[in-house]
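Dear colleague,

Following up on Tuesday's group meeting, I ran the structure prediction for the two-component complex that the binding team flagged. I've pasted the input sequences exactly as they went in, so you can double-check that nothing got truncated or mislabelled along the way. The structure tokens for the whole assembly follow below. Feel free to forward this to whoever is handling the docking comparison.

Inputs:
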Amino acid sequence: MSINDLPVLSALRTKMQWHQERQRVLSENVSNSDTPNFRPRELVEPKFDKTGAPAGSMGPLAMTVTSASHMTPSGAPSSFDQNKNAGFETRPAGNAVNLEEEMTKSANNQMDYAAVTSLYAKSLHLLKTAIGKG
Amino acid sequence: MANDSSDFARSMAIATSGLRAQAGRMRVISENIANADSTSSTAGGDPYRRKVPTFSSALDRTLDAQVVTLGKIKPDQSNFRVKYEPSNPAADASGNVKYPNVNSVVEMTDMRDAQRSYEANVNIISATRRMIQRTLDILKS
């Protein structure tokens, strides 16, 4: 069993990936805050079962590209489930991005990510202690 | 995933596309404000016509993400302001001078809006940078 297979570490890693991807989605929303007919997107938070493996709410399978000339479908692929109901305040141009909301989400995302990385570092420290090097 | 570059790098690139688009919008707004009183160089001719920037969302295939691009800069088709100034060299036969259809109040609000969006994109970049820093901090512990 490698270090990466530890339930705690793999759960934390999935969570870190989720935050990373969420930051990308939020960044898309903010940069398109003036694009007509743009609908903001949001990711569904992953849930973990008792073994630390993510349970449900994962994204759809990505399409396999068999030739380099194939086009990607519009809307970036995501490995997490998307919440398409984000944004309830639509401006006359059809844009539903609320900058304040996106900024709050980004700040939250950053703080949560900081918490997860601290937990990860602590878990590694715990392992070091266990093998007598801490 | 088609793209192996980290999501953080992509977040930064997307926010940068936002910065570029807003900076382009600022350029158009400053052009409008600077020309708010430009009349035609010929008598009775049309003065400067206000320009309107447009934004469009495009899928960047190298990034695999929706980035924003500054689309065509279109002319505003609204009417020119007309003032009666017979002594002006740009006046037509009846003494009327056409002034640009630029309203400085509209331009100012647009400018504030562009500034606000620009700041939001800068905030996203600094938040992403802090997150990258946290990832590197794991190595230090």
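The longest strand of chain B covers residues 55-60.

Cheers,
M.
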